[in-house]
Amino acid sequence: MVQIIRKALLPNPSEVVERLRPAATQAHSIVLREPRPLGFPLLFTANLLLIEPAVAFLHEHFVQRAHTADTIRTYCEILYDWFETLEQNAVDWASADAVDLVAYRNRMLLQPSARTGRPYRISTVNLRVRGVLRFYEWAVRMRWLEASSLVGRPGDFAVARRPQPVCANTVDHSLFVLRQFELLPRPLTSEQARELLATLPPPYDLMARWQIYTGLRVSELLRLSSKDVSGQSPSAASHHTIEVTRKGRKPGYVIAPSSLLDETAGYLSGHRRAWLQRARRKGRPSGHTALFINARGAPAGKNAYQRVISQAGQACGFRATTHLMRATFACMLLARLERLASQVVAINPLLVVKVLMGHERIETTDRYLRAIAVDASALRDVLDTLLSGTT
User: Fold this and answer.
1) Rounded to an integer, what distance in angstroms lies between the CA atom of residue 68 and that of residue 71?
2) Cα(26)–Cα(122) distance, integer angstroms
3) For 175-184, 256-265, 283-292, which range has the lowest pLDDT when averaged over its residues?
4) How far is 365 from 361, CA to CA, in rounded Å?
5) What one-character DSSP code corresponds to residue 93?
6) Is the C-alpha dihedral spanning 227, 266, 331, 187 positive or negative?
């Protein structure tokens, strides 16, 4: 079975057996140009042989390209699952071909996830297939492989060839990727938003308000620090610009209403201060700069927040996710801007929402335009209350 061993600190020479102490002493004196951080994932075979190409792939993307920890975790999960499948079927990774990849894809379609017990989503299957193809393209480019049947001819089988259209030379049009139908986002109604926010405990109720009123991603929300909001000078303006770090470490900003900042100031002087004081009394770390912390005085976690949102939605009788609140903001804002544009105001609604949502492509933002066209009645209900500030 493939294993993931996380990088740890080098042992002290006094902690190892005597014959290894010279090597341990020398290891502490070695200076690396590109050291891997603590916790970096190292993949090993069942015989504890390092899977060098997989580790080199993760090293390039995490250390050299400085991708986020979430991205590397996704890459690591994909490579772990792929190499585990190859090992179980006694297939060498360098000789894996289209038949192996199709069998890997079909296994996910027929068998539930071993971790969750639920069937794989089509999006998850496609994500893993694309990840495997990306890894082999990288391996050929970096000369780990001279060539691979998975690179350059994604729609071709060695055992059963058939004509392919010209566009089939891209991963998204390859034979391995399943057809995926995009679901349009559905915003929360005003009653649902009010009920959900009333059900959530602090600080998750305030975190949800930030998503509904600014459209922040969860990762962006958790990166907010207390200085990001406490430094806002009081003014008569109804909205304030907050600088944020977007997905992929890109700089960006959101526009937060004064009412939201007032609630956040109350949280800073109330719950947050009390939780940090209690953490200090109990000897726990209390020097956190994160804006949102939990009752133990530790920074709020992504999984805990998503779990609380889901449970609150179930208690209210409807499905709720963190992304659904972000979608509510997008649909809400886009509908209002479309209304202004129809009144001969010189604005581009899609472009404005694209910037405030932090999207890279305008096609992503267009999903919300189609959503409000499909569910206009629900959105009017959202606009009547959310935009009036009664939520």
Assistant:
1) 5
2) 50
3) 175-184
4) 7
5) G
6) positive
* DSSP helix/strand/coil, 167: helix
Place of tokens 């030379």: 169
Structure tokens, 177 = 């990727």
pLDDT of amino acid 167: 37
Domains observed in the chain: 3-173 (no CATH), 190-386 (1.10.443.10)
Amino acid identity at 327? A
Span 303-344, pLDDT tens digits: 999 999 999 999 999 999 999 999 899 888 888 888 888 887
Q: State both tokens at 105.
A: 């894809």
Residue pair 281/288 in contact (Cβ under 8 Å)? The answer is no
Distances (CA, A) of 272 to 111, 216, 286: 45, 21, 11
267 Cβ contact list (under 8 Å, min separation 6) = 202, 203, 206
CB 245 within 8 A of CB 252: yes
Across-strand partners of 5? 42
Q: How do strand 41-44 and strand 239-245 relate by DSSP bridges?
A: unpaired
Distance CA 287, CA 285 (A): 6
At 108-167, the pLDDT tens digits run 999 988 878 889 989 899 999 999 999 999 999 999 999 999 987 544 444 444 444 333
